[in-house]
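Forum > Structural Biology > Help requests

Title: Can anyone predict the 3D structure of Threonylcarbamoyl-AMP synthase?

Hi all, first post here. I have the sequence for Threonylcarbamoyl-AMP synthase but no way to get a structure on my laptop. I'd be grateful if someone could post the structure tokens.
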Amino acid sequence: MAPVAPILEVNAEHPQPRHVQRAVDILSGGGVIAYPTDTYYGLGCDLGSKKGIERLYKLKGRDRKKPLSILCPDLSDVAKYAHVSNFAYRTMKGLTPGAFTFILEATRLMPEVMMSKQKQVGIRVPDSELARALAAGLGRPLVTTSATDLEGEPLTDARSIKDALGHGLDLILDAGVTLLEASTVVSLIGDQIEVLRQGKGQLD
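Reply #1:
Sure, ran it for you. Structure tokens for Threonylcarbamoyl-AMP synthase below:
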């Protein structure tokens, strides 16, 4: 039987560097972790790890035709992985860091498994010091998806994540209970703003 992931308590606003480093080391080795964000708890792996991405899909029981999103530490990283027009940049600049997932056309750096049929990708720059520190420490985006149970209900604390998903994780970063909403999904394709899912993020 697979060992169950340990829980490590972290300060979400002022994350302890040694805890961030421990998580980054696990991610770099193809591991999968759970961590708090500015919306739900997320499950994440290294974008550069095919093994990690496979494990994430399996853990979520997710259809391969439904791409996962990526999480970048700041806006300057986004242009490596997606085509960012001046319009898209200005829009995102006003909304990041924040509770938004932006749909953009992917660049060639994006692995095939991470793109929709239309070669589009969802990208987050969250308002979460811890989540951004993980991506910055890794030096690559995190592949990210919300931590949910088999029915798709969000898991709001470390203990319930451990009970439901601990067998498939390598580490759970615990920052207490999150009773939040999903991110707002905004398409910026063709320099048009289209809200595909209204969540926590509010467009002015």
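Residues 17-28 form the longest helix (12 residues). Strands lie at 7-9, 33-36, 41-46, 69-71, 100-105, 120-124, 142-146, 171-174, 184-187, 194-197.
Shout if anything looks off.
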